[in-house]
Each structure stands twice: as structure tokens, then as C-alpha cells.
Amino acid sequence: MGQAMTGTEFWSLARQTLFEPRLAAARILGMGLPLSAAWMGLALMAVLNTLVYTLSLQLGPPADPAAMSMTGPARDMPLLFSVMLFGGLALTALALAHVGRFLGGQGGLAEIVPLLAWMQALRLLVQLGVVVLALAAPVLAALVVLVAAVWGVVILLVFVDEAHGLGGLFRAAGVVVVSILALAVGLSLVIGLIGAPMIGRM
Fold first, then answer.
1. Domain boundaries in the chain?
2. pTM: predicted TM-score of the whole model, two decimal places
3. pLDDT (tens digit, 9 = 90+) per residue, 61-79?
4. What is the Cα–Cα distance from 159 to 172, expressed in whole angstroms?
């Protein structure tokens, strides 16, 4: 059973994730967090990320009308947006777990979900920082978003590699790419199944 993390341990793990992601992943997995608690943490991060994202839209909405229409659910229906975000994260966790095992990995949801929840916690910190920076230095805020996105991909690859014991980032990249393709195909099938009856009634 995992123990509650102190503030010092939190920031220590955050720094380690940025500079030594493999050690951070091993540290998270070594906590023995129950899967149910990891799912709850992932759901909480979805809600908190939605709140911060909604706040950022209120403070500085996108100038592009197309972008405004895309952010509508977050701005007008944050509860629905948070449910959609959690659903996306849950599907991502399922894909990474099952695709990873299919491609020779040893991990499962018990390994993937805590790591994904922790990444969302770091994403929350980045969003908070960007909201503050955007008020004083928008260009710097945009740069932080870019760097965080790129480094976030690296951390994800390391975490997937550590969770499945794949032995290399190239194999982890394969798991991530196949997972994305599987999610895209699955979503297309769902949309097709839902859309076909609707078109037939038109």
C-alpha cells in the first residue's frame, strides 16, 4: 500500500522526472499505489487540468475564431470537457497497456495508470505556470508550452519503456505509435457506427 507523498517528496519527484525520468518512473512504480487509487488520481487530474485550462481561456481566449469553436466545451461545459478528458486518458492508458503487452512488454494498467496520472500532475503545474506567464510574457509562455510538449513526449517514452521493461526507447516509441493508431481506428469505427444510423434517418 502506497503512503501519502509529502511536499518535499513531491517536488523532489518532479525534479527527478524532468532530469532523470527513468529513475522517477522506477520510484513511482515502487510506491505500490493501488490501481483504484491511481484511477482516482487520473480522474482528479482531469478535473483540475480542465479547471486551469478553463481559467486560461477566461483570462486570454484565443484570437482565432476556429480555435474558439474548438475550445467551446472547455469554456461553456467544463464538466463535460473533464469527462471527455478523463475518457481520453483512460483509453490512452488501456491502449498503452495492451499494445505494450502485445509487443512484448511486461507491464499493465497497474504500471501505466500511475505513471500517466503523474504526468498529468506535471501537466497541471505547467498549465499553472503558463497562465501566470501569459499575463506578463506571452512569448515566454508560448516557448514554455513548446518545450514542455517536446520534453513531455520524451518522458512518456521513458515511462512506457520502464513500465513494460522493453529495453529501449525505440520499442517504447513503437508502442506509443501503435497505440495512437489503434485509438484512431477505434474512434473512427465508433463514429462510423454512430453516424451511419443518423445519416440513414436524414
1. 7-200
2. 0.85
3. 554 444 445 455 555 677 8
4. 9
